[in-house]
Amino acid sequence: MEMIVDFPGGAKVDAHFGDFTVKTDQSPTGGGEGSEPTPFALFLASLGACAGIYVLGFCQQRGIPTDGIRIIQRAHRYPSNGMIEQIDIEIQTPPDFPEKYLPALIRSANQCAVKKHLEHPPKFNVYTQTV
Questions:
Q1: Are the C-beta atoms of 38 and 24 separated by less than 8 Å?
Q2: Rounded to an integer, what distance in angstroms lies between the CA atom of residue 39 and that of residue 19?
Q3: Within 13 A of 66's CA, how many CA atoms are on the CB side?
Q4: Span 29-34, mean pLDDT?
Q5: Is there a contact between 60 and 45 (Cβ–Cβ < 8 Å)?
Q6: What is the pLDDT of residue 85?
Q7: Backbone angles phi, psi at 126, to 5 degrees
Q8: Predicted structure pTM score
Q9: Is the domain 38-131 a CATH 3.30.300.20 member?
Q10: Which stretch of DSSP H or E encloses residue 78?
């Protein structure tokens, strides 16, 4: 998959891939306008959304309605450097959700591809090329 990243102005950075464009900006304190999510916020959102895809698929395969199901994601930072120390993914279910499926629901969310890539990170190769 190839992605082209460009700089439309200010502190905005856009990523183009396929038929999509993901727009980002920095907060006003970071030199931007705050008009779009930051790249890091999108990264964190990709974790919750990815877990959500697996939870959704689990429920759909079993005919379980997803009304009342939601995921709350919390990022905890190291106070010393602001880096993420821990991410909690809480799957909230309605009272009528079948209790027998709760452990399997957790297992399905743990299948998230974004999470798995963090657990086994790829190697990075950053370089320049004059064109």
A1: yes
A2: 19
A3: 14
A4: 96
A5: no
A6: 96
A7: -110, 130
A8: 0.89
A9: yes
A10: none
Q: Which two tokens stand for residue 96?
A: 């009528």
Question: Which pLDDT score, from 0 to 100, does residue 15 have?
Answer: 98
Is the separation of the CB atoms in 98 and 86 below 8 Å?
no
Per-residue pLDDT at 104: 97
Say how far apart CA 69 and CA 8 lie, in whole Å: 38
* Residue among 51, 61, 59, 46 at smallest CA distance from 110: 51
pLDDT of residue 108: 97
Tokens 């008009």 map to which residue? Answer: 35
Residue 19, judged by CB atoms within 10 A of its CB (0-12, 13-18, 19+), counts as exposed
Within 10 angstroms of residue 52's Cβ, the number of other Cβ atoms is 19
Q: Where are the chain's structural domains?
A: 1-37, 38-131
The confidence band for 29, taking pLDDT boundaries of 50, 70 and 90, is very high
